[in-house]
Amino acid sequence: MYLVKIFNSISGIEGDGIFAGEPIPKGTIVFYYSNDDIYVSKKEFKSLPDLKKQQVYKLGVEAENGDWIVTDGDANHSCDANILSLFVDGLYCDIAVKDIQIGEEITIDYGLFYSSFPWQMKCRCHSNNCRGVFGSAIAVDFQAQQLWNSRISEAVDRIHHVSQPLFSRDDESAKVLTLALRSKHSPRIFPYIKFSMICAYPDNGDEIMR
């Protein structure tokens, strides 16, 4: 579920995209999996007709256990994305890694998504650091990984310094994620496999805990 105001419009990247309906400061948690999202189990997904599967592919995100979560917006891919995926105590969310202006398209890097099957797409983001082709079957170069790490790290530093719409949500998923975020002091990013938010021990900045 998106926590900020969004609207659909024609994208300069491909097809329709989602756009910011309000200013979104860097460090804002933009999206999380809420109790209101549509969940499709691995077993149920396999039994769907092909047309329904294509709809889930387009609007859904695959979890590591093979289940699917169908989101309420279809953000286009960009190699210069303004939101990126983050895990907090194993909980998925998307964080704004740039200040996003009203009317600006919201984009995410599909290279961070988990997939149990190989796929690839031609990129049309037209950014200066466009990778040309991306997908689960293509290794992500070190430069792209460093870009993800630096941008997510900078955004995480701002989590407790910007207004978080998440913190006022009253569904159970939001409460759990809010508690996880608020428990992180001097947060850092653990960049291996998933970009996970961690907490530095107060007495030793070199030690970390998951």
Description:
By secondary structure, the chain is an alpha+beta fold. The chain has 4 helices and 15 strands. 20% of the residues lie in helices and 27% in strands. The strands form 5 sheets. Strands 3, 8, 9, 13, 14 and 15 form a 6-stranded mixed beta sheet that branches. Strands 4-6-5 form a 3-stranded antiparallel beta sheet. The relative contact order is 0.18. Residues 201-210 have low confidence and may be disordered.
Mean pLDDT: 87
How many domains, as an integer? Answer: 1
- Decide which structural class fits the backbone: alpha+beta
Alpha-carbon distance between the termini? 25 Å
Task: Spell out the blueprint of helices and strands.
Elements: E1 6-10, E2 16-20, E3 29-32, E4 38-40, H1 42-47, H2 50-59, E5 60-62, E6 68-70, E7 76-77, E8 83-88, E9 91-96, E10 107-108, E11 120-122, E12 133-135, H3 142-156, H4 172-182, E13 187-190, E14 196-200, E15 208-209
Parallel strand pairs: 7-10, 8-14
Antiparallel strand pairs: 1-2, 3-9, 4-6, 5-6, 8-9, 11-12, 13-14, 14-15
